[in-house]
Amino acid sequence: MISGDLAFYIALGFGAQLVDGALGMAYGLIATSVLLASGAPPALSSASVHAAEVVTTGLAGASHVWHQNVEWRTFRRLAAAGVFGGVIGAYILTELPEKPVKVFVILYLFGMALLILRRVISGGAERKHVRGTLPIGVAGGFLDAVGGGGWGPIVNSTLIARGETPRISIGSVSLAEFLVTAAISATFVMTLDLASYGQVVLGLIIGGALAAPFAGWFSRVLPQKVLMSLVALTVSALGVYNFVQLGST
């Protein structure tokens, strides 16, 4: 018999992973926000989400591979650069002022959302290979570690705004996120005791595992303009959320 708390965490993991798997972003924001709203301490929320993401991002990435949404050259470059940026960001996190980083992320997300919407309206041509993936990956990994999230919004919005096919960007970024999340989590979590967080982590993993197989399918079957529009709206919503959070601190 599944307890009420475990069922809640499973449902949360399922919903967060369904959105993240289809659009390549927002798992951390959704899961962490709901856990905090339910009264969970910040340390519990952050540690649980990071631990669960190692499993869920791997499963979502596998789904994208199955549905042929991954461009392997892009994946390799993003993964290597993202791991480097993420580990560096995790190590120097305490040395950086929080508000300037958040302001930069907010402005960047809004800018990328506008560029994506311009592509939707103008029907801009797609490119087979988008250049500059290494710096995009480093920046995405760094900001993900520093800001507690941001890999998907930063990297996906940039690639799509610069002409990458939406489903290929989402698939490649989602698969790379598995390695980036694992590296960041290892850097953060080595000194934390997750024994008391077991039920939360288990629920998020089970829910995420149930939703992960749908991730690649949604990205493959949804029209590309619909995907671009959803990515732009999600990125804008993340920017608004970060702005509200910034104002409340």
3D structure, described in words:
This protein has 249 residues and is mostly helical. The protein has one domain (4-248). The chain contains ten helices and no strands. Helix 1 (4-23) packs antiparallel against helix 2 (27-37), helix 1 (4-23) packs parallel to helix 9 and helix 7 crosses helix 10 (224-248). It is globular.
Report the C-alpha radius of gyration, rounded.
17 Å
Distance between the termini: 41 Å
Given helix and strand content, the structural type is: mainly alpha
Number of helices: 10
Number of domains: 1
- Helix and strand succession? HHHHHHHHHH
Total number of beta strands:
0
Helix share bin? over 70%
Tell me, what's the shape? globular
Mean pLDDT, to the nearest integer, reads: 79
Strand content: under 5%
Give the biggest beta sheet. Answer: none
Q: Give the uncertain stretches in residue-range form.
A: none
Provide key terms for this protein:
mainly alpha; 80% helix; 10 helices; 249 residues
How do the strands and helices of this protein lay out in sequence?
Elements: H1 4-23, H2 27-37, H3 42-66, H4 72-91, H5 98-122, H6 133-147, H7 151-161, H8 166-189, H9 198-221, H10 224-248
Helix pairs in contact: 1-2, 1-8, 1-9, 2-3, 3-8, 3-9, 4-6, 4-8, 5-7, 5-10, 6-7, 7-8, 7-10
